[in-house]
Structure formats: structure tokens, C-alpha cells
Design brief:
2 copies of one chain form a homodimer. By secondary structure, chain A is of the alpha/beta class. Chain A has 2 domains: 179 residues, SPOUT methyltransferase, trefoil knot domain (Alpha/beta knot, 3-Layer(aba) Sandwich); 66 residues. Chain A contains 12 helices and 7 strands. In chain A, helix 1 packs parallel to helix 7, helix 5 crosses helix 7 and helix 9 runs parallel beside helix 11.
Chain lengths: 258, 258
């Protein structure tokens, strides 16, 4: 999906830190930054990135999420990266023999939002591209987040996992600013008198056109047509348009022009 | 996040079709296939892919989601790609001057699941990487889906958009009691090809009647009329009836002119 970024809109940049444990490819780090920015997260922490930091591949793949990439912090160990956090969730797809509460992304995001509103500093931990997190690392987390994936095709890449959690985070916000731009989108259905006007117009035109044949079926045929128009749940402007359509089809416009 | 695929697990492969309108990069198509497979979707439809099909970059980027890539269908036009569907959602990030219901992904996925359980064939439409969908394409959809993105950083790539919708689709699989509302009394919406047939019939008739005036407003006027018909959620029998109505009105006008 393409979409222009909206200029002069408030930049949302708050919420849990995203912690990548020994990320390997700069491109993946950049895609993580972009996914975070899409859904209002901004604090990226890197534990011992393989190719060092800064990384031009990351900058390029971030597609403009520079406020995330340029402010990323680098840490030698996971312990250091989570030192100031009071609550950490670890994402993993694999069943493990570690006893921790396991949450879905939606439930996890709701919990992170509650903690955020209470002033807690929290983080979401993601493992290496190749083999995720080891048990020692998961032990450092309070809870496990896992995704409801297709059992036969369960592998999510790191940017996808960050995208899903960031998206669920954004969904827990009170209002979704993206929807304001559309207006309500609600259809205002026309008063019934306009609908009746349209139906009478159509019936008159069909009478003139000899549509109702044989005569004894007229009522039934007219009911069928009326019922279609009632189902349409038309707005007033749409009714005006359709009356114009009917008028054109029955030749009034042409007659008027002569 | 890394995770091994689980062998001997049931492969989930059902649900709405994913329709990509004129996708440009094979790599993106492959990443879309992977995202679909992660969350149990399997039916991929490509409208006029820029670099042809099959595409080795797509196969590579699919990371093993070959059951999606190898069964993808290719269509010359969007109309053809949606011909057998009764309900289509279009994803877009941009506010538009088209009156359509706008849904969030969660609400949209719930609706798609209800339709799936009722036996309807549905689809989710995604635009080109660069500039999304044009108005004529959006008009063909019943509803718009948009994502609750950060207003200042709103651009999602196509694979991300597919991932989010597929994920929400999968999330709806658990719940079910809410879905019992769909019973046998449900309206069975006609396949899209019948609707397109009606719209083309009406437009031809309006062209003949000189409705589209002035000429430079033709596209906008035709879109307005099409959008009304899409809103109607017509059943096949209703479409036949309306075609009879249009034919009758046309016939009368022709007779007058003679």
C-alpha cells in the first residue's frame, strides 16, 4: 500500500523501547525503525549489533524514520540495555521450557499501555534474525509475547514482529489519528420521501416504456423494482444522480434540448 | 523474531483473496506471499504485474511460501480479478473524496470472517507500491480499510499492509459465537462480474443518451454512478431486473427518436 506522509502532522514518538538483541543486518534494523515510526514508537536500543553502529544500510532501509535511527542507543549487553526498565516483554515464536506468562500481541499491548499511562518504563525484546533469543535472555524478561501464526508457516522476520507489536501498541491509544482525515465516513441515508420520489419517477418511466407487461403482473413487477431501491440505502445526492440517470435514459434530457 | 517452521503441522490456507493491483517489484510480491502464509491466507491474485509472471525474485522473497506464489493467478484487469467475488475491501492510506465506509483492520477482518463463514467469496485489494490505487479502482470496492498509523509517518509498504490485514484475519479465527448471526436469511450478494456488467450496460446507455456532459466531467460522473451501484449490494436477480429496467428505458428513448 502506498501512502503519502502527512506534512505538519504531530509526530507520535513515545511508548515502550524496542530492544534488538545482536541484530545482524543493517537493513533489518532500518526496517524495524520504519515499522516503529509507522505506529508511533521511537526508542530503539541495539545490543551489540554485528556490523557496528551507525550503519548506512539501516539508514537507507528506514525510509525516512531518521528520528528513530539517529537516536538509537547501542549497548554491550542485554543487561545494560534493560537496566532502566521496570517491565520487559520478550517476543518468541518457539515453545520453551521456561515458566513465564505467555501473551498474545493484543493483550501484551494493552498491558504496556496501562504501564505507560502509569509512568512505567517498559521494553519489548526481539532476538537475532537467525535464531532468536536464548534462554538466558528470555529469563531477563517478565513475560513472553507470541504471535498467532499459521502453525505450518510460523517464521516471522524481525521487522514483521516489530510491526505487529507496534501496530497493536498504536491500537491501544484512545483515538486513532489516521481516521480523522477521512471524516466519519458514515452514510446519511435520505429521507424516505426522496426515495419515494425516485421510485415513482422510475415507475412512471417504465410505464411509458411499456416495461410492465403483461398488465396483471404490474404490481408484482413494480414491487420487485421498489424493493431493490429500498435495499440500496441511498443518500439524497445519490437519489438526485439516479433521477438524472433515469431522465437521461428515458430521453427527457434530449427532448428538453430540442 | 526468528522461528523455525513447524513440520507436520496443518497448513492453514483459506479465507479472502489478496489482490495486488499492478505490483512493481517481484520481491514485494514474494514478501506479500510470505505474510499471507504466516497468517493462513493462500489465494493471491495479481493484476498486470509489471515484470511479468512467474518472477524469480518473488519466489526467492517468499521464503518458502511456495503454495501461495505458485498458485497465484494473473489477471489483465482489476475487473477480471474481482469478477467472482461478492465483497471487496480496498486498502488505502489516503483520504479521498469517495463516499465509502471506512474500517479499521480489526473491524474489517471480523466482517471478512463473518462473510467467509457464510460462504461468501471476498477479497482485499492493495495498490501499487508507488502510488496505491486510483479512484476508478477504489470505486470497485465495497469498503475502504485504513490503518491507524502515525500521522507524521503514515507510509506502509505493501507487504506490511498485507501482513497487518492477514494477522487481523488470523486473530478472528478463535472467536466464533459472535458469528452465528449470519443465517440462511442472509442476502447473497452477486459476483462482481454481474455488477460490472450492469455498470457497463448503464454507462453505455448513458453515453448513447448524451448524459455525460460536458465531456471533461465524464470520468467523474461515471465514477459517481458506479459508486452508487457498488453501494447497492445487489443480488444477482436484482441485477437482472435492473438491466431489464435500463433496457426498457433505453428502448423507449430510441423509439421516441425514430
Amino acid at each position: 500500500m502506498s501512502g503519502t506522509d502527512f506534512k505538519n502532522k504531530p509526530l507520535i514518538a513515545e511508548g515502550p523501547a524496542v530492544i534488538l538483541c545482536e541484530p545482524q543486518l543493517g537493513q533489518n534494523i532500518g526496517m524495524v525503525a520504519r515499522a516503529m515510526a509507522n505506529f508511533g514508537l521511537a526508542e530503539l536500543r541495539l545490543v551489540a549489533p554485528r556490523d557496528g553502529w551507525p550503519n548506512e544500510h539501516a539508514t537507507k532501509a528506514a525510509s525516512g524514520a531518521l528520528h528513530v535511527v539517529e537516536n538509537a542507543s547501542v549497548h554491550a549487553t542485554l543487561e545494560e540495555a534493560v537496566a532502566d526498565l521496570s517491565f520487559v516483554m520478550a517476543t518468541t515464536a518457539r515453545p520453551r521450557d521456561i515458566v513465564k506468562p505467555v501473551r498474545g500481541p493484543e493483550e501484551a499491548a494493552g498491558d504496556l499501555r496501562r504501564r505507560f499511562l502509569a509512568g512505567e518504563k517498559t521494553g519489548i525484546l526481539y532476538g537475532r534474525e537467525r535464531w532468536g533469543l536464548n534462554n538466558d535472555e528470555i529469563i531477563l524478561a517478565d513475560e513472553i509475547v507470541t504471535f498467532p501464526v499459521n502453525p505450518a508457516f510460523a517464521s516471522l522476520n524481525i521487522a514483521q514482529a516489530v510491526l505487529l507489536m507496534s501496530y497493536e501498541w498504536m491500537k491501544t491509544a484512545d483515538s486513532n489519528p489516521a481516521f480523522d482525515a477521512f471524516g466519519s465516513g458514515e452514510r446519511v441515508i435520505a429521507d424516505r420521501k426522496h426515495l419515494v420520489g425516485l421510485m415513482e419517477h422510475v415507475e412512471q418511466a417504465l410505464d411509458d416504456a411499456g416495461y410492465f407487461f403483461p398488465a396483471e403482473r404490474r404490481d408484482r413487477m413494480a414491487q420487485t423494482v421498489r424493493n431493490i431501491f429500498v435495499h440500496m440505502k441511498l443518500q439524497e445526492q445519490e437519489i438526485q444522480t439516479l433521477r438524472g440517470v433515469v431522465a437521461a435514459l428515458e430521453g427527457r434530457r434530449r427532448k428538453q434540448q430540442n
